[in-house]
Write a structure and sequence with these properties.
single chain, 341 residues, alpha+beta, eight-stranded mixed β-sheet, 14 strands, 24% helix
Length: 341
């Protein structure tokens, strides 16, 4: 049986959306499997509604708006000035790119090589890591919210929960076990997402990743040179163009909550492209395995009579349960936790 084939010409009354989603999911081959089949049209489950595409058309092409690029070598000669640049970017845009960050180019290249090596393994080799229930610390999937979103997205992902507790390297796919990954010294509590966006035959009809904000404290992203990442800023979608050697940094929802809205966790998305594959690797800083023992709320020093607390105190488990239950639906993950004005 052909899995998730082209259904663009199927009459609405004859189309069983759930069955097509299920067949695609059960194939365990992801979007790359579709791309490898040589299809000329994307399956109907990936097609965005016409009204959504039309609405986006009026929010693109912003001239003159740019995501800040900060050179961290300035820390050595003018630390206060460089820190001020970071603070301004976190307050105003919520996104910025950093150069001269100290991560060797060989590490960045090795990370891309590992990402490509896994996603381009034979289907049978990847299927053993396929998991939609979230029961594995290392899992492969296509769209964690496949059955919740209005349409599927042209993206495969390998999720690796690195710590806490430290991940046993034997749990990683063999092609993802170089020393640079096993010995990464990140802040306690982080996960890696290896995203793979194959070339799309109809990029104008779907997205790689829909608009969303990140459910963490901070995200550091390595993107390749294909582009497609956009941030929603001043009511427009603004490109985050690839810069050689740069890392992209963005504020997460939990840091916005703790800063009492001083720092901004902004919506962003990834466009589909007719070239590819596009590769990106995101490092999310949050305590995935410690959801109930710690309470988070606005930092006391940032709350005053003139600026009262904007959010109630929450546990990470409460926040993540809400985030995963709604999926990437374009709605703010922080809204339910806001205090009445």
């Amino acid at each position: 049986m052909e899995v998730a084939g082209d259904s663009a010409n199927v009459a609405p009354s004859a189309w069983d959306r759930y069955r097509e989603l299920r067949d695609f999911d059960e194939s365990k081959s992801g979007v790359k499997g579709l791309s490898d089949s040589g299809l000329a049209k994307i399956p109907r489950i990936f097609v965005r509604p016409d009204e959504e595409i039309a609405r986006d058309g009026s929010k693109t092409g912003a001239a003159g708006l740019q995501v800040p690029i900060i050179d961290l070598k300035g820390l050595a000669v003018n630390r206060p000035g460089t820190v001020a640049q970071v603070l301004e970017a976190a307050r105003e845009v919520g996104f910025f790119q950093v150069l001269n960050h100290g991560v060797p180019e060989s590490i960045l290249e090795g990370a891309f090589a590992a990402a490509r090596a896994f996603h381009e393994l034979p289907k049978e080799a990847k299927a053993g890591y396929y998991d939609r229930e979230g029961n594995r610390r290392v899992r492969f999937s296509c769209n964690f919210d496949l059955y919740k979103s209005r349409h599927a997205h042209w993206r495969d992902s390998l999720f690796c929960l690195m710590e806490p507790p430290p991940l046993d390297p034997e749990e990683l796919p063999l092609v993802c076990r170089p020393a640079y990954l096993v010995n990464m010294d990140c802040a306690k509590g982080h996960a890696l997402l290896y995203h793979y966006y194959p070339a799309c035959p109809e990029p104008n009809l779907t997205l790689g990743t829909p608009k969303h904000s990140d459910p963490d404290f901070l995200t550091i992203l390595l993107q390749d040179d294909i582009g497609g990442l956009q941030v929603y800023y001043q009511d427009q979608w603004v490109d985050v163009p690839p810069v050689a050697g740069a890392l992209v940094v963005n504020i997460g929802d939990l840091l916005q909550l703790m800063s009492n809205d001083i720092f901004k966790s902004v919506e962003h998305r990834v466009l589909s492209k007719d070239v590819g594959p596009r590769l990106s690797i995101a490092c999310f800083f949050t305590l995935y395995e410690d959801p109930t023992s710690k309470i988070y709320g606005p930092i006391e020093e940032l709350v005053s009579e003139d600026r009262p607390a904007l959010y109630r105190k929450i546990t990470l488990g409460e926040f993540m349960t809400h985030y995963y239950s709604k999926g990437l639906d374009g709605r703010s993950s922080l809204a339910p936790f806001k205090l009445p004005c």
